Every structure is written in structure tokens, then in C-alpha cells.
Amino acid sequence: MKIERINAREIEMDLLAPFETSFGVMKNRRILLLEVITDQGIGWGELTAPDFPFYNSETIDTAWLMLDQFLVPLVLGVEFDDVSTLSTLMTRVRGHEMAKGTLETAVWDAVARSRGISLASMLGGTLTEIPCGVSLGIHTEVSALLDRIAGELSAGYQRVKLKIKPGKDVEVVAAVRARYPQINLTVDANSAYTLAEIDLLRQLDDFGLDYIEQPLQWNEIYRHAELQRQLKTPICLDECIHSLRDVEASVELEAARIINIKLGRVGGHAQASAIQDYCRKHDIPVWSGGMLETGIGRAHNIAMSSLPGFTLPGDVSASERYWARDITTEPIRVTPRGTIVVPAGPGTGFEPDHDYIRSLTSTQKTWAP
Hints:
Low-confidence stretches: none
Number of strands: 13
Strand content: 15-25%
Mean pLDDT: 96
Oligomer: single chain
Helix content: 25-40%
Shape: globular
Number of domains: 2
CATH architecture of the largest domain: Alpha-Beta Barrel
């Protein structure tokens, strides 16, 4: 197979409701899509980097630069037998996992489509349905949050995750747990705390949480190990994990008992598959995190989540929770059981809505040899 052309399109979409985390409020998303045209088929990928470098160091603008100046020239026109060849070529560029992952996932989709098989089966997926949870942003009013949770539970979602930050943490979690004593409940701090606040974090042990996600700094594995020794609740690492080596360090240091795998953050399917395989062998549960993706990025998350190591409900939820209209011809739906059926069709199993994407496009570029 050879990459003959790559089309990039930037679109912008409004979220149905603002989504607040410890690093800010998102009302809309600029989204970069890649359409990779090979001599055997076409595949699509979606950049998961936001506008700002507050989640990690990447942004949509840095991704445009890296793709245009470095990554696309490395792979355009190259003949390859498997996607690992392209991943190896891109290792010359240090970091920029989200930019690499956009290109790598699009090629995986193209290869699976060219073979007439589902991406999930090509990756080695074994699940026919994946369990789904929801991630809820910080709410000004706790009563509104409680009502929102009721709606999500009635829709069948199997786990509720609350975003927290200093001043919006223990009292909020206490109120949710008092109303819903039996639900699978987690919290996500997005690096909002330090070890100086360990007494506050210890209070979260009282609420029977499944885990506390990324309480400390985004690049601080060592101090998470110190914190985990002082908590009963498992720590789940997110922002710290960019590669299998990060996972190995986290497990060996006992810094985390659970790992959140975000496809873009680790650079694509090859690294995500290696991480879940390592974690499965070490009895570390993994799940798929979300970055407010459209149906294209969400479809890749579904395929990834079909791998056997993904044993916990992830953040892969229905299109209707975020978008008035998604950019795939069929939206992603959640069953009343709180699951998503893994598509059996070629590639991701979801088709881009080409006309709608064109109508949303603000910037585009084509690379060809």
C-alpha cells in the first residue's frame, strides 16, 4: 500500500452545552480531520488536540505545523506492508503524539477498508459491545448536576465521572453519593491538585469511588506513587501516559492501579494496543478516555475499546450528548443497556458525511507527491 494523497480539513462545531473542567470551559471545538487516500483505499482520522495547551502541550495549530512541515513529508508516497512501518518513520519526530495519531489512525482505517474487514477485528478486538460511561463537567449548581446524572442513568450509562477542582470537589461528591449510593462513580481532577492537598484528597476515600483520575501534575508519575500509598481509592493516570514506557514506569512504581488510554494522547492504535496488552498481563484495568470527539474520532475509540484489556466503562458515549448533528452519516448510539455495538462493517464501520463536512470546512489543504 502507498499513500497517494492526504486531505486535511478544519471544521468548527458548537457543543450542545458548555463543558467545564479544571483548566477551563469549552463551548465549541475546532477539529482537524485527515482523509488519507492510498492506492487501495481511503481512511479517516481526527485530531484530538484542543485549541489550548492546558491539557497537554499540543494544540490544533501545532498539529497543523507538524503535519505540514514534518509528518506528512515522512510518509507521503511511501510503500508499506503494515501500519507499523509508518509509525516507525514518524518516531523521528519527538513527541506530538496527537498529530501522529491522527495520521496513524486514518491509515489503519484505510488498511481495514481495503481488506474488507472491521478495524476492531484487525486490531484484535474480541468484544461485540463496549460498556459506556459519561463524563460530566463542573456544574455551578449541585442540583443541576444531580438532575443531569438522573438523565444519564435513565439512558443506561454504566458509570458516572465527575470533573472536580479545588472548591468543587468533596461537597459535590458527597451530594452525588448521598443521592446515588450504588452507582459506579469516579472523579477526574485533570491535574488540579498537589501533594500539599493530600488531606483533602484523603476525604475522597469515604465515597466508594471506583478511582480518582489524574489528581496531580500532568507529567508527575513519581508523586502519584507517593499519593497512591496514602489513599485507599485507586489512582487512574491520564495526562501522564504518552507511551508504553510511561505505563511501565507507572506500574513498576505503583503510581496507578488503572490506566486511561486516549488514542490520540498515546499516538494511535499501535501504541494503544501495546499498552492494553501490557496492562492485561499485569492485571491493570484500562478504559477509553474521550476528548469531545466527533463521530470519526469516536468510531476509532469504539474499535480500540473492543480489545480484551478494556474492562471498565469508558467515556465513549452517544453523539447526541455533544452535537446537534454529528459528521458521520449515522450517529453513534448507546443501547438501553449502556453499551455501544461494535460495527462489523469495513474500517471503523462509520461513514463520514462528506457534504456536511464540506459545509463546515473553514480551512483545507491537500498534500500530494
